Amino acid sequence: MSLAPPQRVWWKPLGRTERLWVTLAVLWAVVLFLMMLVWGAVGKQDTPVETYRTTTQQFTAVTDEFVKNYQVGTDKGVPVVAPPPGGDAYLRASRWAWYPVLELKKGQTYRIHLSSTDIQHGFSLPQEVFSLNYQVLPGYIYVVTLTPPEAGEFPVVCNEYCGIASEKVGHHSMVGKIVVKE
Amino acid sequence: MATQATAFRTCPVTGFRVHLPAQKLVIVNAVAGVLALTVGGILALLIGLTRWQAVHLLPADLYYRFVSMHGMTMLVFWMVFFEVAGLYFGSTVVLNARLVKPAIGWLAFVLMAVGAVLADVVMLVDKDSAIMFTAYVPMQASPLFYLGVILFAVGALVAVGLFFVTIVAAKVEGRHRGSLPLVTYGLVTAAIIAVFTLLGGAMAFIPTFLWSIGLMAQLDPETYRNLFWAFGHPAQQVNLAAMVAVWYTLATLTTGAKPLNEKLSRFAFLLYILFINLGSVHHLLVDPGLSSPMRIFNTSYAMYLAVVASMVHAFSIPSAVEVAQRAKGYKGLFGWLIHAPWKEPGFAALAVSMVMFGFIGGVTGVLQGMMQLNMLAHNTLMIPGHFHATVVAGTTVAFMGLSYYLVPLMTQKKLVGMAWARWQPYIYGFGLLLLISGMWLSGRMGVPRRSWDVFNFGGAPTFGTDAFNAASGTLALLGIGAIIAVIGGGIFVVIMVSTLLFGKKQQG
Amino acid sequence: MARKEAGHEEKGFEAPGTLVLVLVFLAWFALAFTVAWSSLGRAWPVH
Ligand code: HEM
Ligand SMILES: [Cu+2]
Ligand SMILES: [Cu+2]
Fold it and tell me: What is the largest CA-CA distance in chain C?
């Protein structure tokens, strides 16, 4: 019994069932491991790794510059910005808003630079099934290269707790917007 | 040595020699754990009924406070108090040995209790300190919050140290000879992992504490996340190893099972020690800063060797039960299982714990922790969905099952409400199944965790979305599951408290 | 506790019922694995 010291020698050879199961478990572990490499090589989705250091001042400045160059309108007082297809877009998180609204073209690829100017936030883009989620940190730019395959309006929801000012304003009210045009 | 001889009693049921000072410490730590579980359970009901958007019980401020408190109280205080009780039990009673220096055990207890109360009270009264148990910088809580956590961790470290010394003394004094019993071996595994867990905790929380009182610069947010998860992740492996040790115990107690191959089971525990701490990177898979090979190597715990270990235990425990049952004469492929002691609370807890941990917790954990798949799950309700299957339906249920034997053995009182105890694991497990399904299915639609209002976003956001309205049904499932699970947890608490207060004295 | 040692013969399976149970588990795991990766395939292309 497992509460008593093992009797006699306990380093016996494995039985037949045990050998079979351990072999299957090891093979399964190899499949799990290889899947990440395989998907990285052939899948259309891979975890972004491109990262840069930044500062609040610097990131605020590049986002403002980006807005100035490519603004196409405003929505509820927030600039709507259409970055050039294939080019860079900037999305700034700060308590408790995403800035600016991005207007993208379906089927085009964009490098979205995510950073925060105060504390940690979470970038979450809900989709048909599941959502895509990335951590947004002050001091770091995380470049997420996206190709929207469908047109429509998509929310950007903050999913890292970032405090509240009141019932109306806080983490749960931090919703931004990405518009994808045909 | 005369005083020492009288410090023991011999249990008439199990034949164990019980060291009385150790017995007191086991009781006191277990009681503190159950108290934490009670507080955490009341909070669980309140936040569960808030996430059920149709009910939306709490105001925003209280919801965030209570989520912070629930996470800390359950995951850290309930688990660790109970584990410390388990460590004292496994190093003394199981080995027929004495607890070296009980005074140190009391010191550890006081540090942990003061730390726990401090941290919880600070989160309760100071809204700015309720920043979730993860406390990601640069959000800053009151220094007292960090101090509470540090005191608790130091106390736990002292207790773990006492456990090691006690085992060594049992050997040196010749009270225990030969290899350690498998259960104690599993507890040693848990304790070794606990040491580097607590050191990781110190590295995350001490600089943060110094920063909160202005003595140190702020830690880099990503560095903090790394250090925090060097604590937060292995802490789950402590829970895992302790849970597996409890599984072996319950299998033995309820069916007389004996592992088919001790070598294999022990080797599997060894794999935990070697590889499991690597997995902390699965919390950082969608963070800026790490390279792909790093992410893949670490999240797979070096090629999933720890998963292999869990699969070994998943085989070796039921097979031990099967062999023991067959020896009693049950025939056929599943005769042994059909005639298993399903009405024995320890076996019920073992079955619920193993099935829910493996089929739900383990599978979702491995999958959501794969590099690319993590993008779909990070910080959504899929995450609490996963870990309520591991640490609640798995570990907590196993600990509850053990309590039905540990508490009567230690208090020498007859369990009150045995009829309820037989059903309790099933009720709790069923509630959790609904809770977990509700969380996971909502998270699958992108519903964030730790968010007060996913329908109206507080009422006046700049932009809204109806993306989550489709989750109203699954969020209701979450709420209903919470109610049933809390009832199941409540039954456990009532049984334990009644046994302590009104249980009939048994001799011994 | 001196029950006779069971199992460990080279012939037959010591715990056939358990073997079936763990194979069911592996099948469930493989199913969940397939579903999870195919859902990822439906997400927006990203890297
Ligand atoms: C009756 C049983 C329980 C119920 C109904 C329950 C329910 C919940 C709910 C609704 C949340 C909040 C999810 C969110 O809004 O993000 C939550 C979070 C959490 N629960 Fe539980 N829970 C239970 C037991 C436990 C136990 C026993 C543990 C630990 C051993 C635990 C650990 C946690 C943790 C760590 C969190 C995350 C807190 C955070 O996001 O910071 N829960 N639980
Ligand atoms: Cu935010
Ligand atoms: Cu937030």
Answer: 62
pLDDT tens digits, residue range B71-105? 999 999 999 999 999 999 999 998 989 999 999 99
The total number of structural domains in chain A stands at 2
Nearest CA to ligand 1 atom 40: B450
B459, pLDDT greater than 50:
yes
B273 touches A22 (CB < 8 A): no
Closest CA to ligand 1's atom 20: B71
Q: Around B494, how many Cα atoms within 13 Å sit in the side-chain half-sphere? A: 12
Amino acid at A104: L
User: How much is the pTM?
Assistant: 0.94
> A57 and A22 in one domain?
no
DSSP letter (8 states) at residue A6: P
Same domain, A86 and A39: no
Ligand 1, CB cutoff 6 Å, lining residues: B 41, 44, 47-48, 51, 67, 70-71, 74-75, 78-79, 132-133, 384, 388, 391-392, 396, 435, 449-450, 482, 485-486, 489
Tell me the two tokens of residue B88: 């004292």
CB B288 to CB A137 under 8 A?
A: yes
Mark out the alpha helices in B213-300 (DSSP H runs): 221-255, 262-275, 292-299
Rounded to the nearest 5 percent, the helix, strand and coil shares of chain C are 55, 0, 45
**Shared-domain flag, residues A129 and A171:** yes
How many residues does the structure list for chain B? 508
